[in-house]
Amino acid sequence: MTHGGDVVPRAEALEHVWGSAARDNVLDVYIRYLRSHLGSDSIETIRGIGYRFVG
Q1: What is the CATH number of the domain that holds 40?
Q2: What digits encode the pLDDT tens for the residues 1-14?
Q3: Domain named OmpR/PhoB-type: which ranges (predicted)?
Q4: Alpha carbon 25 to chain centroid, angstroms
Q5: Residues 49, 52: Cα–Cα separation, whole Å
C-alpha cells in the first residue's frame, strides 16, 4: 500500500514481507485475503509481473 499505484513485482513483495523462507503461494493466499476485506477491485493483478493497489 505504500507504493500506491506502482506495480510491485511478486518476488519483491515476497522478500519484503516474508523474507527468503516464504513459499510462492503464500502471496496468492494473502492477496485473496486482502481482496475479501478491501474489495475485489482494490488490488489489481498485473499478469506476469505482480500487483498494484488501486484503492
Answers
A1: 1.10.10.10
A2: 666 788 999 999 88
A3: 1-55
A4: 11
A5: 10
The pLDDT, as a whole number, for residue 19 is 86
CA distance to 3, 10, 19, 38, per residue, from 42 (Å): 13, 17, 24, 6
Helices (H), the chain: 10-18, 25-38
pTM: 0.78
Residues 15-32 have pLDDT tens digits of 888 887 778 789 999 999
Q: Phi and psi dihedrals of 39, rounded to 5?
A: 110, 145
Task: Please give the Cα distance from 30 to 17 (Å, whole number).
Answer: 11
Strand order in the sheet with 50-53: 8-9, 50-53, 43-46
